[in-house]
Amino acid sequence: MTTSPGTRQETAAPAPRTSRLFMPFYLLAFAGLMATTATPVAVTLALRAQQLYGEEKTAVLATTLAIGTVFASVAQPLGGWLSDRTVSRWGRRRPWLVLGLLGGVAGLLVIALVPERWGMVLGWSIASLFLNLAFSALFAVLADQVPPDRRGRVSGWIGVALQAGLSAGTWGAVWLGNQPVALFLGPAAFAVLTTAALLVVLPDRSAGPGTRAPAGRVPWGERLAQLARYRDFGFVWAGRFLLLTGYYIFFNFQLYTLTDHLGVTVAVATSVVALNSTLSAVLKLVVAPLAGWLSDRLGRRRVLVGCSAALFAVSMLLIALAQDVTTFVLGASVGFVAYGVFLAVDLALATEVLPAGDAHGGFGLGLYNVAGTVSQSLAPVVAVSVLAASGDSYPLLYTVAAGLVAAAVVTVMFVRSVR
């Protein structure tokens, strides 16, 4: 990382030395929290809506997810801001990890036990709010405990842990059957155990003087430096938003692409989607840690993020041109490689352009994660609009996705404080 004079980021006091158990428990905590948060979105909320509402299930599920997204978007930066400034005998991240998990479990219990429409909406709103408070504190630990020259490889393994948590939660839903309490609290129990293990070995500390605004007038040089950091952070945020919007267009509409554009049966399309899910997990497992390690080794984040976004744009064009399932899977596989590299290195890049430095890592990384939440909500709207305007032209849809991702290459090139 290169820093011009007068632009040194404000950092928190050096963290205590972590034990050898910190990193495996940290990654397991990510897997547990991801299983608890993503499984309802992917599977269990849809199953619950089907159990309770029959033909109205789609409307109830859409309403529940939309309101939950609003709470998640608020909770991520808010939780980071609060934990950055928390003063307690237990540290500043621990209280929010505990509170977030307890509140999340309470919300999931409401969904499982209240057989009313308002129960699903209220329960998922509570769960989204508190689970994302916990996520904001967990991400902030990266800036607290991991030195900058190791954040690439750790970010890569975080990506693997998140994928593992999603896969474990999905398969768990299959094994647990149609028991509402087990469906929602099974993943939560896993999260409680993994987070409790992390809390034992986490060398957390309360907010210190470095987390508060300095007294007196701020020199103009420092004000300009802060503006430069906000600018770089804004470009990183925009790049993540654009790439993830393109990714979610593919992720949400791959089944319809196979059936409506390539003309395969629903059974074949479902098998291809399952194959893509497996390829995604395997390729991310290989490339994410490797890309993170390489970015640490070379001291280059921006270039790798830009190259991965460019490769992802190519993958969207391959899918746009696909006339058969083989080309579709090839394009998707290229995209999974690019996506794995992007997720690993982009998170490490974000930690190095935090507007107020590592001392406010919770707030900055909370804002960073909002880009993913907003893009996930906006992608279906963009896709439906393009398909409606073009007469269901899937090649045009993926060309638009490629354009959005290509724009991410441009935004990351404007980052100046990191190579």
**Which quaternary structure do these chains form?**
single chain
- State which percent range the strand residues make up: under 5%
The arrangement of helices and strands along the chain is: HHHHHHHHHHHH
- CATH topology of the largest domain, which one? Growth Hormone, Chain: A
CATH level 1 class label of the largest domain: Mainly Alpha
The biggest sheet amounts to: none
The number of domains is 2
Mean pLDDT: 86
Based on helices, strands and strand pairing, what is the structural class?
mainly alpha
Question: How many angstroms does the end-to-end distance come to?
Answer: 6 Å
Task: Give the CA-based shape.
Answer: globular
Count of helical stretches: 12
**Counted beta strands:** 0
In CATH, what is the homologous superfamily of the largest domain? MFS general substrate transporter like domains
The residue ranges in which pLDDT falls below 50 over 5 or more consecutive positions are 1-15, 210-221
Helix content: over 70%
Features:
419 residues, mainly alpha, Growth Hormone, Chain: A, 2 domains, 0% strand, globular, disordered N terminus
If you had to describe this structure to a student in words, what would you say it looks like?
There is one protein chain. This protein has 419 residues and is mainly alpha-helical. It has 2 domains: 22-207, Growth Hormone, Chain: A (Up-down Bundle), CATH 1.20.1250; 223-413, MFS general substrate transporter like domains (Growth Hormone, Chain: A, Up-down Bundle). The protein has helices at 22-53, 57-84, 94-113, 117-145, 151-176, 180-201, 220-261, 266-298, 302-321, 325-351, 361-390, 394-413. The longest helix has 42 residues, at 220-261. The radius of gyration is 21 Å and the shape is globular. The model is unreliable at 1-15 and 210-221 (pLDDT under 50).
